[in-house]
Prior knowledge:
The structure is a single chain. With 136 residues, the protein is an alpha+beta fold. It folds into 2 domains: 23-66; 75-133, no CATH class. The protein is built from 5 helices and 3 strands, in the order ααααβββα. The protein has helices at 23-35, 40-49, 56-64, 68-81, 121-133, and strands at residues 88-96, 99-107, 112-117. A 3-stranded antiparallel beta sheet has the order 1-2-3.
Amino acid sequence: MGNAGRQDDHRGSRSWLVGGYGPNLHRLVLTLHFSGQVTCERITALLNGMGVVISKRQVVRLLTAKLETFRAEDEAVLKAGLCGAYVTVDDTGARHAGKNGYTTQIGSYNFTTFRTGPPNRAWRFCRGCAAACRFM
């Protein structure tokens, strides 16, 4: 897709760039790291091997900067998925650095999303959606 259809703002800056890289590379780095559990070092090596000149520091920036669009997309997927015929919720817990943590999987046939946070997150999620989703 490249930069076709992208518009510069009135000052000529490209606000959709992060560290000189476009949204497709940004999405790839986020997907590799969070879904594929690939480390920053391995992402850097993979991209360098593909001919993309990028440093580990730039990869870290892609993982931490301008995430609003991706957060909005994640919330939109969750909202759309909750309108389906059924929704499943499951959670698992583990200790890390001496603290309890939980990951909650929310999904159906059409979508899956994960939320990680403090204990009892799945129960709070179920209580908050019980009236709309009828899965309790």
